[in-house]
Amino acid sequence: MLAIQTRGLAKTYSGRPPVVALRPLDLDVQPGEIFGLLGPNGAGKTTLVKLLLGIVHPTEGEASMFGTSVTEPLARKPVGFLPENHRFPDYLTARQTLDLFARMAGADSARAPALLEKVRLAGAADRKVKTFSKGMMQRLGIAQALMAGPKLVFLDEPTDGVDPVGRREIRDLLLELAAEGVTLFLNSHLLSEIERVCTRVAIMKEGEIVRDGTVEALTQTGRLWRLRATPIPESVAHTIGGTLQPDPAPILSPEASAAAASGETPLRGYTLAAPDRAALNTALDAMRASGVEIEAVEPLRQSLEDLFVEVVSEPSGAPVADSL
Ligand SMILES: Nc1ncnc2c1ncn2[C@@H]1O[C@H](COP(=O)(O)OP(=O)(O)OP(=O)(O)O)[C@@H](O)[C@H]1O
């Protein structure tokens, strides 16, 4: 059963003029996925989360979580939520905060010590939250979201304002949860974080999902390849299709140095532009035919940030598939 399913889900906020925040969306999120939703400010990310959580109501379409329509309060029973910039009463301790949320959720507060342990706050259980760092606050927020033992957790900017060590702790915690089978729905502007944890990423723009896939598939350029090979003579470089760009400096890896010391020809790094795999192989055949030894060939990836900037700066309504 799908963790999240939407069919034609759309939202227009009334007003003058009305704001189309979400265009009809069909989205399936499988249980166990770590789904990252990206998009520039105003793309409609929060609106989608609010629709799923029943905070706003759709103009059209429907949505369900684990098979229960989001119009039913019961749909939210297996769901946890860490809102962006959440605040807890600062006179409460971490333990008291979880007690309070447990009571509000009708959950068993006996889980609190184990949860504090899980988010590495056991040592700070009796400290007032006003003394907490941003990282500790976020981890307490995650503990709160886990209070009722959810199967699906929405996390809005979970690492916002958290330093690199704190971000790593949160990342490890999210991976741990996913390993336990909890489905995670992350909203974040920190692309490097999304890149590291998400099993699937969607990029939203002007109320529409314009890219959707694994980080690996989305960041593949499809046209550029990295090669490690013995030096490719100029004459060969001329004959092969595409463009061959040598790295500025020879490879200085320990293996390359060892190879040079043992009398083997040292390797060089190259970037090859080839329109498709067939063209790549023709180029490789030409290299091998002239005695070039190839050690490695791999597709060159762009970063998620490069992809994001590319997508966001595309003119509206641009065809999606062509530019991948
Ligand atoms: N309550 C509302 N009434 C009217 N317009 C709204 C309301 N909430 C959001 N909007 C508009 O809907 C559009 C989508 O907003 P939304 O908050 O979903 O975007 P977002 O992708 O979450 O942005 P951000 O990254 O800034 O949080 C924006 O144009 C926003 O101004």
TrEMBL record:
It holds the Pfam family ABC_tran. SMART domains: AAA. CDD domains: ABC_DR_subfamily_A. PROSITE patterns: ABC_TRANSPORTER_1 (PS00211), ABC_TRANSPORTER_2 (PS50893). Keywords: ATP-binding, Nucleotide-binding, Transport. GO terms for molecular function: ATP binding; ATP hydrolysis activity. InterPro entries: AAA+_ATPase (IPR003593), ABC_transporter-like_ATP-bd (IPR003439), ABC_transporter-like_CS (IPR017871), P-loop_NTPase (IPR027417). Residues 4-231 form the ABC transporter domain. The keyword Nucleotide-binding applies. The keyword Nucleotide-binding applies. Belongs to the ABC transporter superfamily. PANTHER family: ABC TRANSPORTER, ATP-BINDING PROTEIN. This is ABC transporter domain-containing protein. It comes from Rubricoccus marinus.
